[in-house]
Amino acid sequence: MRIAVTGATGVLGQEAVEALIAAGHDVTGITRRDSGVPIIEGRGGNAVVADVFDASDLARAFRGYDVVINALAHVPVGMAGLRPLAWREDDKLHLEASVAIAKAAAAAGVRKLVQESTIYLYPDNGSDWIGEDQPLSVRNQAFRPRVAEMRAAVDFAAPGRSAVVLRLGQLFGRDPNTTHALKATRGGDPILLGKPENYVTLLHHTDAGRAFVAALRADSGFYNVGGEPITKARWAKDLAMEAGVEAPAKFYPEITQAIVGTRLDTQRRSLRVSSVRFMSETGWRPTVGPSTPGWSRR
Asked: Residue 28: what are its φ and ψ, rounded to 5°?
């Protein structure tokens, strides 16, 4: 299939491009800047420069493609998410660019849209499992961009078209946030939010890339994508093992956690998320877990 990938220079986008090409597809990465062209070509894809906020420009870029995969995101690293305007770029991508991408894909005659999303839209559910039918916790105004993005994907799924929304687990691997977490663990600095008994559902970036390939086989709908959930206490030990230190990664003091704000407060939640639906429908399985030696270098 001919597939266009937006956000192709980011961690997720690069993995998607490489995995799609390995699966035999004709892949073009969309980049906003000329500097992104060698990054995409380095992964083996073709590159097109287009304005992801301009639906008409995107429609031109998408014409003749079967599938559009939107992997756009710009997540602040660590506690930088507390800074004023730290989420401005990420919000704009989801609120404006993702909507433009869905509209442009429809106008260009694209038949399938695969949209990146996140499990952090779910509420804290303790030790209970979370499936795709679990109501979301998105009433706060801060989640408006993600809601608009989902609605745009749903609107795309008119007769003759399909939209697959992937609610991805917490990314780990060579992404900036995990690199930051490993550095903090080596330095003995606090890095984890929530309680040790809370659950986290992780997704290695290479498995995320493979998930975009698997999504081509999925029917329209929402799908959770992650590995086997583990407690944050276990994740603290896995971070230490990968960082090469004995002491587990530290949790922020409760007084600090109480003032992190809505965006980072989502990381305090206990999210024991089930990916059974996606695995059953597509055959996808995670291959790299937090106990896999050398996962940060893969």
From this structure: -120, 130
